[in-house]
Amino acid sequence: MNMAITDGLALMPPAFAQGLDLWSSENGTAGSDTYEGAVNAALVAADADFGTCLELSKLFSVQKLRSMAQTPIVPGAYLRIRARVKAVAGNLPSVRIAGYAMSAAGHVAGRIETGPELALTTYGKVVTVEAIVGTGARGGVDMPWGLAPGYGHFGLDLTGLNGGVVRIEDMVIEDITEAFLREMMDWVDVRDYGAAGDGVTNDKAAFEAADAAAAGRSILVPAGRYYIGGSVTITAPIRFVGTLITPTEARIALRGSFDFPTYAAAFGDEMAGFRKALQALFGYTDHNALDLCGRRIEVTEPIDVKALSPDISSFSNRRVLRNGQFNVIEGPAWDDTTATSQATYATATPLVLTNVANIANIPVGARVSGAGVGREVYVRAVNVAAGSLTLSQPFYGGSGTRSYTFTRHKYILDFSGLAKLDRFNIDDVEFLCNGKASCILLAPAGEMFQIRDSYVVKPKDRAITSIGHGCQDLLVDRCQFLSNEGSMAATERSSIALNVNANDTKIRESRFVRFRHTLILNGSGHLIVGNHWFQGDDLDAAPRLPGLIFCQPNVQSAVTGNYIDNSTIEWTNEYSANPDFGTEYSFGGLTVSGNTFVSIDAAPWFTWFSVKPYGSGHFIQGLSVSNNVFKAIDGALERIETVDTTFAALDNSRMRNVVFEANTFNGVTQMTVNPVSLQADQASAQAVWTVAAAGYLPFGGWARNVSAIVAEGPITNAAGGRINGVPYVTVEQGAGKQAVTLTWQEAVKGRVHVRLRMDNPN
């Protein structure tokens, strides 16, 4: 590279023979004094060493010699100014290359404008004095001028004792950029645009200038610590040898190299680099995805997304985090924060706790536990001044002042500080929680959070937690959730894979292994399709716990094509402040079809389906359990379904539209069918036949309706005569109301098939 050749720039100063009026005794600027007619300057025509040269007597403490020509200063270019000099008489001075930095506005102050001094020690000895000037503060550059100067007036200074006489050969200025940069360079160096790399000087402008000059090339950030004092966007590809220092709020958008490895190199630390990359992802970087490029990040503390993006309160544009691994490193940063406080709950304000003692120590996202509190209830907001907390769900235990425990788990990705987050996607990422950390804490509000094709391995407490409605339309697709408690008895585990407070969750084709509970779902419109969850243990005849828990009565949801292993689908209304049935819908809107249910070494009273009303008066008003396979291995089960009457029973007199049909039972003592077809045989003539449903009807339901009576063969009287009349039916007979009677017009015998129901079908 040579600017004189490639760009046609005039670098060489005029020869002395062209006239001393072209050489200034001051700074070289227009109007300054020249050496034309000066008493201490003369041309020598035929010096033995130099030919035509300038002879100059030193009269001042600094005898200046500056070219009046304007030598251009170009970003990224480096000039060497050189002169040969010899002393011929008088005192021996020192000599140095010097310049005067100029812009269109005038002199640019604060620049180094002199090179190293060289002492003349012998008369007649030719010495060479030189210095290098350029925009960047690089090794070997004597006068780094940065970007502000556009040109300079160059020459030399005589210093030291006055009275000496020297001769100076014509000066040479040449482009030596090639000494600093490769001959075929495809990058620009930020130092060439004024970057200091000292960790103190704000190099933001230098980075922006290098980016503007890149023009299709990449940017090199050489060794050093570069302080960037504000947000900056770099469009060109960039490579880091040195590292960056920035304020927390400064967003570094590396648009040409937007991936985790580049950010890790930029900040010299994986965690710091990921934080800045994620911060940039929430800006407008011309990218909607952050690629971890298969890299593993050692995570030493929770990543608080709000803290790294303090200027963002909510975000509603699609963003994707993909293709990498997070590995939790043990440390105190992952320890739970726990507080116990007395507080007052009133059913009139079901999502508020008031008069909360010690409230300043209760963080947003803390899980609430205590008498009358359902599973997975969280603190959504804290008002210290008012002494009140906003809850994710109501308590079922009624009004009163009680003591509650607030436990704040620590998560790898913590979005709880954002008011709202929409359309954030996690794709092909593995979270190695190592039993030390929970995984993802959702924002209090938001829609369409998705995690797909990912692994959550050994979370300490929770895999994905919702503290509000940030789970609206939550999507979990083709993921693996592996508990840290797999070797423990099911009843001793405490970890939860996922909870939901809002509607329309889609959990599809995912696998969950040995959590205490797998899915705790409030809201409605959920689709649970094609998953496999295990919750067994290695004990014989052991209790099993709920895996899928619906926490509101009317769910409008489907559980289809899943493999449900050693766990119960439990249906509750534990998120009701007034759990007794009132004007709301009761339990209904649930379809359970095409699933495989398995138990291994379970206690015989274990069931795969349980309804648990937390208040009185409830009933089922829409449930279909069909085309499922139920199989008990190493120990038969009594039946597949039950009502948990810990708090209340169901009202069998109001059951409506309940279907149990086309299911397969293996290792189950009592099949559950509704409507059920029963065969009644009467060997001796009787006027009243009793047909008992036995245990076929689900949930201990009553025999409320008979939809069909079909005789198989003739119905005959005691004398053997055929009777063509039909009986009338009386329902809800017997102590348990699980039988019906058929009353004939006379005593008859024979066989009939009776189709009866425990519900009203409409």
Summarize the model shown.
This protein is mainly beta and 762 residues long. Helices cover 5% and strands 43% of the residues.
Low-confidence stretches: none
Strand content: 35-45%
Mean pLDDT, nearest integer? 95
Total domain units: 5
Count of runs of 4 or more consecutive helical residues = 5
Q: Supply Rg.
A: 43 Å
Helical content stands at: under 10%
What class would the helix/strand composition place it in?
A: mainly beta
Give a count of the beta strands, DSSP E runs of length 2 or more: 67
Alpha-carbon distance between the termini?
Answer: 89 Å
Main beta sheet strand tally, sense and closure: 20 strands, parallel
Gross morphology is: rod-shaped
Domain Rhamnogalacturonase A/B/Epimerase-like pectate lyase: 187-247
InterPro entries: Pectin_lyas_fold, Pectin_lyase_fold/virulence, RHGA/B-epi-like_pectate_lyase
Protein name: Right-handed parallel beta-helix repeat-containing protein
Q: What do these coordinates show?
A:
The structure is a single chain. By secondary structure, the chain is mostly beta strands. The chain folds into five domains: 3-181, Jelly Rolls, CATH 2.60.120.260; 186-291, no CATH class; 339-408; 483-666, no CATH class; 676-757. The chain has five helices and 67 strands. The protein has a 20-stranded parallel beta sheet that branches. Helix 3 (260-267) crosses helix 4 (270-281). The model has no long low-confidence stretch (mean pLDDT 95). It holds the Pfam family Pect-lyase_RHGA_epim. InterPro entries: Pectin_lyas_fold, Pectin_lyase_fold/virulence, RHGA/B-epi-like_pectate_lyase.
